[in-house]
Design a protein that fits this description.
The chain folds into three domains: 165 residues, D-amino Acid Aminotransferase, Chain A, domain 1 (2-Layer Sandwich), CATH 3.30.470.20; 84 residues, ATP-grasp fold, A domain (Dna Ligase, domain 1, 2-Layer Sandwich), CATH 3.30.1490.20; 148 residues, 3-Layer(aba) Sandwich (Rossmann fold). It is 37% helix and 25% strand. It is built from 14 helices and 19 strands. Strands 1, 8, 9, 10, 11, 12 and 13 form a seven-stranded antiparallel sheet that branches. Strands 2-7-3-4 form a four-stranded antiparallel sheet, with helices on one face. The longest helix is centred in the middle third of the chain and has 20 residues. It starts with 6 loop residues before the first helix and ends with a helix. The N terminus is likely disordered. The structure holds guanosine-5'-diphosphate and manganese (II) ion. Manganese (II) ion (MN) binds next to loops. Guanosine-5'-diphosphate binds next to strand 3, strand 4, strand 8 and strand 11.
Amino acid sequence: MPNARYGGVLDQVMKIHEYQAKDILAKYGVAVPRGEVANTLEQALDVARRLFMAGASGVVVKAQIHAGGRGKGGGVKVAKTHSEAEDYAKQILGMQLVTHQTGPQGQKVRRLLVEETAAIDRELYLGVVLDRVTSKIVFMASKAGGMEIEEVAAKDPDAIVKEYIDPAVGFQPYQGRKLAFALGLKPVQINQAVHFMQGLYKVFVETDASLLEINPFITTKDDKLLALDCKMNFDDNAMFRHKDLKELRDVTEEDPLEVEASTYSLNYIKLDGNIACMVNGAGLAMATMDIIQYAGGSPANFLDVGGGASQEQIERAFEILLSDQHVKAIFINIFGGILRVDTLAQGVVAAAIKTNVKVPIVLRLEGTNVEQGRKILKDSGLNFLVGETMQDAAQIVVAAAKGAK
Ligand code: GDP
Ligand code: MN
């Protein structure tokens, strides 16, 4: 169950690149521009050359990173000639692309998508997501394409038209027509649009997608419809049944700490604060983040070490928490059920010694073998702070993080 506050953060999704998403669309008969991915400058030039030879009037050179807003950041450039394409490919490949989604450090561009340019008439928006309130897939359409949809939703929510899909009957052609009319499409485009949306629905359901966004969804001067951009996320928990999709994962785009954590089966998500959390159980982890904020602090991560974490996993978890440079204090909040408190304590002591930890560690321990656990901590000679209750411990750790600044 998603938590209202952290639901967005904690939904584990697998992201893919635009070129990969467009390959999937094409397989389902959804219209995308002609183009290919390139990992090197030579490959990019080769793709451009072939597109020009096949009659393209221009090519667009697009940075492939797992973040939106590439156009504004200088990662999407339209070239009229082969030599212009070469200039842009040189510029973009290898650049540190900064967008509103990458953070100020940006993301290194390791590959390009080179596509035939389209003669754009209108830029529209089409999105498909899972609506948690109605438990239905919802289509969203807007005439305000090319802009960030969050911005449209905030300024002019009426500009977004929604159509909820009944899971028992699936996407219906009349729903496609409704959306097409709302987008102000021409009569000759209506059936194309319905076909396009039926394709999107099929992709969404069959791939266990959690988000499918076409922005912009364009009409061309000759009345065709095309997905000019495509962003696609999948439900990570469903990837076990999609071996082919799993291979599309690009770990170079992901947070290195999250990648490392996933190799040890730790459920870790990096956040922006400075108090690291080590908790067992997702519910307790969320409660811990809440109580840290309630005490005036800010969590550096979500970390669920699981019900039966081994000593090794705890050591790994500790190393991961400590490799986040922003961490000023660590809050260990464990209820020893399956995971015994003494096992945890051994892991913590071993990890604290091994990693030569400098930041204060605050613990709140409860459950099986709690006395043995406390003794292990005491006998270690290391300086652990212990809170009696969760609230206590939260106040101590928030104070410790502030003092350490
Ligand atoms: P984003 O900024 O990461 O969302 O990247 P997009 O793929 O959406 O590209 C940004 C913008 O570049 C689009 O909204 C278009 O205005 C423009 N663009 C992308 N492809 C083409 C193209 O083939 N022709 C033209 N003229 N503009 C394009
Ligand atoms: Mn876009």
